[in-house]
Structure formats: C-alpha cells, structure tokens
Amino acid sequence: MSPDEAPEPGAYAVDVRDGRVGRVMGRVGTYVQLRPPGGGKEWDCPPDDVRPVALGEVLRARVREINAEGRLP
Predict the structure, then answer these.
(1) Rounded to a whole number, what is the distance in angstroms from the first to the last CA of the chain?
(2) pLDDT value of position 14
(3) Which of 1, 4, 9, 20 is spaced 20 to 30 A from 73 at the CA atom?
(4) Angle at Cα 5 formed by Cα 38 and Cα 49, nearest 5°?
(5) Which helix (H) or strand (E) holds 15?
(6) Per-residue confidence in pLDDT tens, the chain, 73 aa
C-alpha cells in the first residue's frame, strides 16, 4: 500500500510484517503509527506493510489482549 493509500487515523490496520493489528494513530515522517486495540505502546510501520483489517481480526486481537491481561504471574 502506498503512503497515499494508508488507512486514515482511527481506522484499524494490520502490520503484515508480523500480523499485529492496530488502530492508526497518524503518521510520523513516512511511517504509519499503530497502537494495539486495547491501548498500549505505538509502533511505526512502513506504509507498504500496512493493510486494512476486517472487524473480526480486530475483535480477535482485542480478545487476545484481554486474555493476556487476565493471566496471573
């Protein structure tokens, strides 16, 4: 996906390099900034490695995060 085609801020996208789903927070230089669905640290992704994501993938990512937060040490 070219830099001009990257999803708009607020949309969800997937980083195809590792499969992580994130909400598009904006752009820094040539990178798209993504944040995990439940919050957390943003990461930078080249626009060519970002693609739109289906709602089901967003829900699965969020459930994984909630389950990980609920695990006891």
Answers:
(1) 40
(2) 95
(3) 20
(4) 60
(5) strand 12-15
(6) 555 667 889 899 999 999 999 999 999 999 999 999 878 899 999 999 999 888 888 888 888 878 877 865 6
User: Using a CB cutoff of 8 Å and minimum separation of 24, what contacts does 56-64 make?
Assistant: 57/12, 57/14, 57/21, 58/12, 58/21, 60/21, 61/20, 61/21, 61/36, 61/37, 62/37, 62/38
Please tell me whether the overall predicted TM-score, pTM, comes out greater than 0.70 for this model. yes
Query: Quick one: pLDDT at residue 51?
Result: 93
- CB distance 15 to 50 below 8 Å: yes
Distance CA 12, CA 37 (A): 8
